[in-house]
Amino acid sequence: MRQIPPKYAGEQTYPAFPLNAGDGREGVSLLGSHNMEITPDGATPAFDHGEMTGSSDKAAYWGTPIETKAPNGNPRQYVFVSDEVWRFEDGALTQDNDFGGGASGFVQGMVITDDAVTPPNQRLVAFFGDSTAYDANQGHYWRNLDTDTTPWTEHAGATALTAFLAQRVGSDVFLVTGSAGQGRCVLGEHKVSKIPAGSFSGVTTLAGPAEPVGFSDWPIIGQGSYRGSPAYGKGTGAFYRNSVDKRYDPIRALSEKLPHGMNCKVMVDSENGMIYADNAGRLFEYNGYSEREITPLKDSRKPKDTQRGRIAWAADRGDVLAVGYAAWQGFIKGPVAAARGVRVFTKIAGTWAEITSGVTDNSMVTPAAANMNAWGGTATDRLLVISPFPLAGIIPRVTRNPNAATNSFTNPQGSGGGAETAGSLSVDLGTVRDATILGVAARSLVLTGFPPASAEPVLSWTSISSYADVLSTAITVTGIATITGFGYEWSPTNTTAMTITTTIDEMDFLLGRPGLGLRDPSGSPFVAANDFSSMWASGMLEEIYFGRRMGFGEYEWSNPYVLNTGGGTLNAAWTTAASGTMTNGGQALAIYSRFGQFIIAEGATRDPRRQRYPKLCQWGTTKPGPRLTINNMAFRHSDGSLADPSIPKRIRGVEIDGRDIPPEDFMQVWFDGLDNRPAWLYRTYKGTAPGAIKNAAGRMRRATMHLLYSDTNQTDMWAPLIESVRVRWQVAGADVQDIPAPASGSKALA
Questions:
Q1: What is the full DSSP assignment across 541-559?
Q2: Fold topology of 63-299
Q3: Which residue, among 395, 398, 394, 349, has the nearest Cα to 375 in the 3D structure?
């Protein structure tokens, strides 16, 4: 048995929270906490968030919001998606206009500008670009913003301006256009033209000279400005306008040597200049003179379950920069999944066929034959995946032969444990989440892409309990075999067959991972119906980081929010528009995701502890609640010395100090021993500042602790505050032997 000094054999106290700089607890972090504001004062539930009124799946991805004012003078946001323009005000999305173009007529850019009338009117202009033009004439639509009933006017023909992106810099308008002639754009546009302030009438003669941004091999996909100058982003990086040489030069020369189609997809104006991201997940700030990397927590060690990858959006409000990481990034490549036993099947017109080899060989040109040929023509058709491990969804990539027929996936089902037959699996997985649909709501497997892609073409479900509900079982695939594994299948919406050439080129797989497994019979909200922890661990939730600006290129980062957006968030913006019932009186953050549109209701004080009667985040079936996570606790003795990491410990108690904790609120403590075993529930507590929670349980060498908090009524004057958390522990005595105290007058051995 390992021997330890007697002074370390008794109960010890570990100060788990707060973490103080320089206290020697390297590797310990609070990453993985969510919907918690963590400040030097302690931890408190974050402001509430929820879906906007009118939120829904728009079957496309949102453009850049424009903050302006309504005719009555109140703040308002305009934003476009597909062939529609929407406005956000009073907590609700309202459609301003549906141009009716469908998949052939997407709005590509939008701007508000003064027209050429004296006195000028404010025009909201929607541009349709080239190959995705609303009609054969190609042009744009506009309306004055003096009333909400002002009709939209089409401006088409050979002299009408066309553009893919548009922005106002100062009072001038800059359009991504000009490769097809003055004010006329082409697909893959790489040139920019200027329209002087107050002169807009929509005709090509107003457009200034078309200036190229880099070479023509990469299109412009991002735009921003700094110090009154425009800037643009493309696969070869960010470009600024050199006012001396009157051309666009790269900010980082290396970017031109390492192009990627998603570089600078994220590009926004900032307090100090301009912010942009590259495909590798790095974030940069440029002020017109120098550039600095500002990637959130770039030097910190993140736990494996926290997201790190491509940044989906950024939004600056001056004091705080909000950054969202794209969901669904932790997928398994097809060849790896297939090597581990994942198999893929189709059922078409009553016949099952296996397509695994063609969609998991890391080749975009096999299979040569269409594997979704006429799928959906029969109501019993299925797309089936059987996996030796739980999944959170799949990513079917279509690059050559998309579906052009009106049929889509629906009715996701999973296997339930008893012997089952493919085609009639027993577990309902809720509503389908289908990002292979773009533009036309009932058409799956359009061009879903291969990297580069703006959002992963996810095919999944809405159920938050699928990890626990779907069980490994023997599944009979008629005519092929009986296969044991976790089964997931999708049905067609109708009996219209997909285009006979429709081909899934490759398929990647989203691994389902265990969560906490919430359970509590005491009446607390910590129950399975509110348990988003598995979705979070599987990378299905969207993590949002806040960077408090300390100076140019210097930010203090935290990750206060995690949202169940469903993925596909490409744009977000701060807004002063009233946010309806979802409000705390301050600037809200509007988040425009593919599957839903959300409001984070920040307060006027921007601090839950300083907001009177704050509306704080709650546990529920549509969003995760507040969780304080303390990662990688390497236990310390009461004197501060590091405990032997090889000796198992047993938790003896948890001490929590706090303020303004009402008797109706709940707290729950979980521990994860970091030993590949499930996390285990330690104790649920209801009441005021709890003091000590006693419970001798668990054996672990290191641990992660999760403290769940439920703000029950949201009617308290002050937000609750957790000031400190201390863990009392003791070595697991069966594995150690105390070093006896030396006898009087004896000498210790050298």
A1: SEEEEEEEEEETTEEEEEE
A2: Neuraminidase (2.120.10)
A3: 349
